[in-house]
Amino acid sequence: MALTLRPDKKNKNLIEKLKKIYNEKTSSKAIEKAVSYIVNENNEDLREYSELSDKLLQKDIYYKNLTDRPILGERINYKGLIHAPVNELGVVYLFGLISKELGIEIESIQAGFPDCLAKRKVKNGWQNIRIELEYLASNFIKHGHDFTKCDMVVCWENDWLDCPIEVIALKEKIDELKNKRNRLETSHNKK
Q: Model confidence over 159-175: pLDDT tens digits?
């Protein structure tokens, strides 16, 4: 019979132990044993634990790629988008989903450079900005774009750390936004 966990300090410690086990690449048997303690996956406070357990159980399972369909990105499960972008079009879609949460209002998306014309909230009001959307920030260079005609690069992953213009890496922003939502949900549930 499995043990039902309650959201308390013990379970927070258990989550940390599971994270440590996963990082140390412990055997699948040990992971399965640790995961077997999960019973109530619907409990909001145990969501992180449940998602982690799913990752742990699946970490060593790989199948042959099917050549007639695309490969999906890692699971992000944010605002209806289940998988992370794997190309520029995915970045365009994800940016459209979360732009307001980033304080940016999109005016237009276009095929030509720059990809996006928008406004962003500044101290005294709103300011027009020109945005180029890329899967990797370094694709800006590969595509031959002129950084003097663009204000910002929005990408999935920032691999161009000395970029002369502002870069927003959506991979990092999604993590920040998820953490913010979890904190808000936790504080709301405590009331």
A: 999 999 999 999 999 99
